[in-house]
Design brief:
By secondary structure, this protein is mainly α. It has a domain of 64 residues. 59% of the residues lie in helices and 0% in strands. α1 crosses α3. The longest helix has 30 residues.
Length: 128
Amino acid sequence: MLFFDGGVGLLFLLLWVYCIFEVITTDEARIRNLPKLAWLVIVILLSDIGSIAWLVAGRPQGAARALPDHGDTGIPPEYDRPGRATAQSPDDDAAFLSQLRARAEEQRKKAAEQARLLRQQEDEPPSA
């Protein structure tokens, strides 16, 4: 008989802890009948009765308890696009490489022009 009493006590303890976590994590807009803080106080102070009362009268029902839609997961939509897992190397993109070459060539031309202007300034005699 001692094991049975201990087992029932353990079940009520697990139920109590479960209900406390569930009250804390449930969205306040979905809780029925009382405010969230009131349910938390009831479940904590009246452990067994409060836990059962939460399950019967406070816990959200039916579809409100369902998992959130795919859009409500908080995951940005760019992580959900098809083909995201495939690696795409810039070395394989010909348009990117040609744009990179054109930009590098433009930078070389600007640097050469600046060097030429600097040499011209150094070669000119000072005008006085």
